[in-house]
């Protein structure tokens, strides 16, 4: 965009939403410490010692994935949960596919609930300036109901794999650093409470990550290894590319024509967003629709809510719908378990349509 003269270097720099990158970086540091401290192993172990049947174990996996994805970015939760859940299914001598699908689908659905649930919500929070608490009040009921629907559908589709009597999983020894677990949990809770108290999300996220790096219990290199730096660079590049498209393609005439699409209507913006998210992925879809929503004369917040809901839930439609899906599928493939496009689609497509309809009705 700069080399071809579409944008000047200064315009390219201004196009990058630094708040979004700061939030992502801060959240990655927090999740890295929770993971390295052994927190997720402790949570999984605690839940599994209290569930002794396949269906309650599935529910535990789904609720843990969905709950933590609501606050700590779904992609990072999938990275932490997928290997733990695969190991659990192996120890239970059960088909790991329904449990792994529960991680992917629940992380997508759960991440709908808040601004920090996924990258596209983080962007929408930065663009719209909607308070964290108001965002959560609007979308968390959809996420909660979506998790119930996902649980029911996975249980029906994989009923043969989820039947049977009591199981006693042989849980591996829980390796954790208690001091680091406590420090990570205290800072995470304080961070989330600060979000709801109305503090700037970017400021709180990076302020939470800073103190966690001040420790001798874990080498900084291990933390940096958990941070997805290519993802941060990708986002910076996307901001610049979409800014170039916005300058050259989204002319005043184009924006005027878009008014006839009635994007202020929840059903319309949800349908356009869901379709676009499955063509170009959800983050570019949000960036492309941003200028159209910003120029709405009324009901702008409602349109932002619909965009966040639909672009996130659309991620369950196919394996390629979200990065979270790809993380889980690739982790399974590494261990010799193939989750094919058709197997995912036969569950993901109806789940997506049901949750989207629910979201449109609720909003």
Quick take:
This protein has 363 residues and is mostly helical.
Protein architecture, described:
The protein is mainly α. It contains 18 helices and no strands. The longest helix is centred in the middle third of the chain and has 26 residues, at about 130-155. It is globular, with a radius of gyration of 21 Å. The model has no long low-confidence stretch (mean pLDDT about 85).
Give the tags:
mainly alpha; 18 helices; 363 residues; globular
H/E element sequence:
HHHHHHHHHHHHHHHHHH
Q: Approximately what portion of the residues adopt beta-strand conformation?
A: under 5%
Distance between the termini: 38 Å
Oligomer: single chain
Number of separate strands: 0
How many helices does DSSP assign?
Answer: 18
Fold topology:
Elements (H helix, E strand, L loop, with lengths): L8 H7 L2 H20 L1 H10 L5 H19 L1 H19 L4 H14 L8 H10 L3 H26 L20 H19 L4 H13 L6 H7 L2 H20 L3 H7 L7 H15 L1 H13 L5 H14 L9 H12 L6 H22 L1
Helix pairs in contact: 1-12, 2-7, 2-9, 2-10, 2-11, 2-12, 3-4, 4-5, 4-6, 4-8, 5-6, 5-17, 6-8, 6-17, 7-15, 7-16, 8-18, 9-10, 12-15, 14-15, 14-16, 15-16, 16-18
